[in-house]
């Protein structure tokens, strides 16, 4: 009985071993890939990394920075909105600058009023007063002359009737009245001549300087409203109402660096692709007239032919795609620009990475 039990256990062990060997010895069927990897469609095509961006005749996307610093009071656009050139995008707090501009405007207006006053001289009322003073001085001279003549006649008839001192006083009074008449006449001529030419020119320059200061201040005031530099679409708004911005941009919480306040792009019907060709493959680039390229969007089955636009003839370090300011790399790349027309059902946006093969058509 004991030997029978051992035989059964041994047989079960053999069967278990055979089953385990069968199970673990089978070749496992590989899992299908999540997406088909990009394949080179050209006989001698070269591979490069690319990034989708808005299509521009030069540069990349339109990064917008304010020309003045301040706190945002209003955001007038939304992401994805199409805007025209000159459309207001955001406004900054301009209370201090507005008060400064109004003060300089008042100063310029005061200087203009004084300049016009100088040009309008002589004032008719002042001229009438000066003429009346001439008449009064003439009357005083006539009275002093009559008194002097009378005292002189009496003194000549009888020196005992009028003293020499009285005669001298009358003569002096006549001379003073004569001098006063001359002063009144000169004052009349001065009033009639109006303001001095140099005073007018000086006031004109003062007004011109204040007017230009107001114009400069008013121009600076307009900078507190940031407008669209070109027709396009709003791709990104990195700020909120109440945020402080400067000509260096706005503090980015994630990258801990300065970022543009608004990023704009061109028409979304046509997008650009900036392809970075490794420097060791640059010599294999086809001629521009025969260059063709095909783009594969990573993680998808989306593919699209690209149209060659231009080569940016400057080899630079490959750090553009990483967004890491402290990255150190040894690879250098040559940017090549392509473009493609986005179909209605092609969901592609600036910033997406792509695998690009470049060949000769």
Q: How are the elements arranged and paired?
A:
Layout: H1 2-25, E1 46-54, E2 62-64, E3 70-75, E4 82-83, E5 88-92, H2 95-120, H3 124-157, H4 164-193, H5 197-222, E6 225-227, E7 232-237, E8 244-245, E9 250-251, E10 258-259, E11 262-265, E12 270-278, E13 291-297, E14 303-311, E15 316-317, E16 332-341, E17 353-360
Antiparallel strand pairs: 1-12, 1-17, 2-11, 3-5, 3-8, 4-7, 5-6, 7-11, 9-10, 12-16, 13-14, 13-17, 14-16, 15-16
Verbal overview:
By secondary structure, the chain is α+β, with helices and mostly antiparallel strands. It has helices spanning 2-25, 95-120, 124-157, 164-193, 197-222; strands spanning 46-54, 62-64, 70-75, 82-83, 88-92, 225-227, 232-237, 244-245, 250-251, 258-259, 262-265, 270-278, 291-297, 303-311, 316-317, 332-341, 353-360. A 6-stranded antiparallel beta barrel has the order 1-12-16-14-13-17. Strand 9 and strand 10 (258-259) form a beta hairpin. Helix 3 packs antiparallel against helix 4.
What spatial order of strands do you see in the largest sheet?
A: 1-12-16-14-13-17
Poorly predicted ranges (pLDDT <50, ≥5 residues)? none
Q: How much helicity do the residues have?
A: 25-40%
Query: For the record, what is the CATH homologous superfamily label of the largest domain?
Result: Efflux pump adaptor protein, beta barrel domain
Could you say what the CATH architecture of the largest domain is?
Beta Barrel
> What structural class do the secondary elements suggest?
alpha+beta
The count of strands amounts to 17
Strand content: 15-25%
The largest sheet is:
6 strands, antiparallel, barrel
> So what's the CATH class of the largest domain?
Mainly Beta
Task: Give me the number of helical elements.
Answer: 5
CATH topology of the largest domain, by name, is Elongation Factor Tu (Ef-tu), domain 3
